[in-house]
Amino acid sequence: MELGVSFAICFSPQSVLETVDLSAKGVDYIVYMWAVRQFALGFIFAFATFKKSIPMLTIAYVFFLVMFVGDFFIGISQKENALIMSAVVMSIISSAMLFVINKRK
Question: Is 30 in the same domain as 66?
Answer without folding.
Answer: no
